[in-house]
Write a structure and sequence with these properties.
mainly beta; Jelly Rolls; seven-stranded antiparallel β-sheet; five-stranded antiparallel β-sheet; globular; disordered N terminus; Xyloglucan endotransglucosylase/hydrolase protein 8; glycosidase; TAT_signal
Length: about 160
């Protein structure tokens, strides 16, 4: 984003049932709590026995999310997600990068938003890029695979010259 330096934090907001699996390079003994903090209802997060899969869900009162404890200038950020199946119309599951929240409304942000759907309809990912608080770069992508059938990796490469 030009010559400005931005500290970024990886965030995932789960407002739908969502399964995710992460691994930490060089930190095999790391736990979820070592690397992330829960935002929202802490009782809406369950962890697998091996600590590598986290189950996030919502009910009719609340959802849940989490964010990294560390901040990053640039990097390769990826997450393995398996979305909930069946009718999820009206629900959005998001995975995004955002500059310091205190910088709002002048924040920079990169979004992956998994839009809910009716059973049998294709799943859509909506992406967006914000610079200095201005978005307007929304794009919708119809998925050619079923994101509820298995884990799939979604990644962002962000460096001083490119966002991929």
């Amino acid at each position: 984003m030009g010559s400005r330096r931005r500290d970024l934090r990886a965030l995932a907001a789960a407002v739908a049932a969502l399964l995710l699996s992460c691994s930490f390079r060089g930190a095999s003994a790391s736990s979820f709590g070592d690397n992330f903090e829960i935002t929202g209802a802490e009782d809406h997060v369950k962890t697998s026995a091996d600590g590598q899969t986290w189950y996030l869900y919502l009910d009719n009162k609340t959802g849940v999310g989490f964010q990294t404890k560390e901040r990053y200038l640039f990097g390769w950020f990826s997450m393995k997600l398996k979305l909930v199946g069946n009718d999820s119309a009206g629900v959005v599951t998001a995975y995004y990068m955002c500059s310091d929240v205190d910088a709002a409304p002048q924040r920079d942000e990169l979004d992956f938003e998994f839009l809910g759907n009716r059973t049998g309809q294709p799943y859509i990912i909506q992406t967006n890029v914000y610079h200095n608080g201005v978005g307007g770069r929304e794009m919708r992508h119809s998925l050619w695979f079923d994101p509820t059938a298995d884990f799939h990796t979604y990644a962002i490469l962000w460096n001083a010259k490119h966002i991929v």
